[in-house]
Amino acid sequence: MSCILCLKNNPNALTHCSPSTLEKLDENRVSNRFQAGEYLFREGSEATGLYCLQLGKILIEKTRNQKAHPLRFIKKGYLLGMPAVFGNQKHIHSAKAIAETDACFIPRASAFKLLENDPGFNKYVLLTLMKEMEELETRLARICEQTAEQRVAELLLDMQETYGLEEGGALPLTVSFNFLSGITNLSDRTLQKVLDMFISKAWFKLQYGRAFILNKAALKMLATGRLA
Length: 228
Hints:
Jelly Rolls; Arc Repressor Mutant, subunit A; 9 helices; about 45% helix; about 25% strand; elongated
């Protein structure tokens, strides 16, 4: 599928580029498929280009005190890697597929041509970078101060906010105990205690690899510190 057609269904920063620029981009991009658990890039690695997410689900992580902290979930249409590529630095966080993911790789040289040739894209990138950097730093500081219960509650709500819910209230991705353990960075014992609490209060349930949000209001109050 061409960039122009793809962007009609999944608009992102590239939507601000001219049709002629997108046609040239088609010649340089490379399609990639990542399985759940694979990294598109890791924190501290060289930024060789951007990833335009066509299909799938991504978790953004950042390490602090030798622990990986989940910062946000990403869905199709997102353009990954802008802070490092356009800031001429190494990646400041990691991007991990949490479901089968298709993404087009745009080499660094091609990405810079977008900045040079399209003022609309240039302006959008500058505004987006400033906003996202501030949001991620604020989020990381908050996560480091959260209790285990607050962290799990916020992650569940973030998944719902990003990916929505299927009919019946299930999150639209496979969610197992091991999956939650991996993205929350909690010990198995601590995570089990938190989930048991959520299940006993009928806020959440985990069944056959499906996660159900049963009481969004209660989870939100807990995540924001308004519920003891």
